[in-house]
Design brief:
Layout lengths: L9 E5 L4 H12 L3 E6 L9 H6 L5 H6 L5 E5 L5 H15 L4 E4 L5 E3 L16 E2 L9 H29 L2 E6 L14 H19 L4 E8 L25 H12 L10 E4 L6
Parallel strand pairs: 1-2, 1-4, 2-3, 4-7, 7-8, 8-9
Antiparallel strand pairs: 5-6
Helix pairs in contact: 1-7, 4-5, 5-6
């Protein structure tokens, strides 16, 4: 990453306080972009042991600054459209422009570990994940998972679009999942939300193409992160015979936010080692 392809650009990464979002932010910072991290909790990585081990500074903002770029962190509830609009406007006010948006916030989670009420003796580093099925899903679970996935994605895109139009263009990358491409998985309603992101990406690309704004999506598969950990039992199902890494995903994001993908829009790229057939 010696070439600063994104020097002079400003990139916004939602859900960037840890995990894949952190990886995207660091990759873009390494390419010279100034970084805005928007997360509901900028200290979210602290509850996951592997996330703490991966960190090279107290926050992702500090890690980006160490790469020689400007970086800011904003805590916001992206399920609230007005709050999301304010956060995007704050990025422009503080960093001067907004060229790239990576809409990464989300997860197949009802309650994240850092949201849990302390319970003596319980494992507080474990998320409460979805257990609903297509024919039987609680209202609470459905609302939460749809809110933190499709609603945050849509509101972020809506918030950044006016700024990109004003400056003559931009790049948006929405983060879906292979769960949104393959209905055989049992991770409902997460898969439904991620499938909606793919449809929304295609629709938004059609609308914003004349404004020189590229809109694409990525669909990560089995990726090792500090929150999800290692899943070696799945390796034999993956043609490349390994799990994906954060860097595997960050490289595709790099492609989609640089001039390498100037004639690509409305597409979803699966990053899954060939898992989907």
């Amino acid at each position: 990453m010696s070439e600063k392809k994104l020097a002079g650009k400003v990139a916004l990464v939602t859900g960037g306080a840890r995990g894949l979002g952190r990886g995207y932010a660091l990759r873009l910072a390494g390419l010279g972009a100034d970084i805005a991290i928007i997360d509901r909790n900028l200290q979210a990585a602290e509850v996951y042991e592997l996330e703490r081990e991966l960190s090279t500074a107290p926050t992702v903002v500090a890690e980006c600054e160490a790469l020689g770029v400007r970086a800011i962190g904003i805590e916001a509830d992206l399920t609230d459209r007005a709050a999301t609009d304010r956060a995007a406007a704050d990025v422009v006010a503080r960093l001067g422009r907004l060229d790239i948006a990576v809409c990464n916030a989300g997860g197949g989670v009802v309650t994240f570990a850092d949201e849990r009420t302390p319970d003596p003796g319980a494992n507080e580093t474990v998320d409460v994940v979805t257990t609903g099925t297509p024919s039987n899903c609680s209202e609470e679970m459905l609302s939460r998972v749809l809110d933190i996935n499709i609603r945050t994605c849509m509101y972020t895109c809506m918030a950044v679009t006016p700024h990109m139009k004003k400056q003559g263009g931009g790049k948006i990358v929405n983060v879906s999942s292979t769960a949104g491409l393959d209905a055989r998985g049992g991770y409902h309603p997460y898969g439904t939300a991620k499938a909606a992101i793919i449809h929304y990406t295609r629709a938004l690309a059609q609308e914003l193409g004349p404004d020189n704004i590229n809109v694409n999506a990525i669909a990560p598969g089995v990726i090792i992160t500090g929150r999800l950990g290692d899943r070696p039992h799945m390796i034999n199902d993956i043609p490349l015979r390994r799990q994906g890494t954060i860097e595997d995903c960050a490289k595709v994001v790099e492609f989609l936010v640089t001039d390498l993908s100037d004639y690509v829009t409305g597409r979803t790229i699966a990053i899954d080692g060939g898992l989907l057939r």
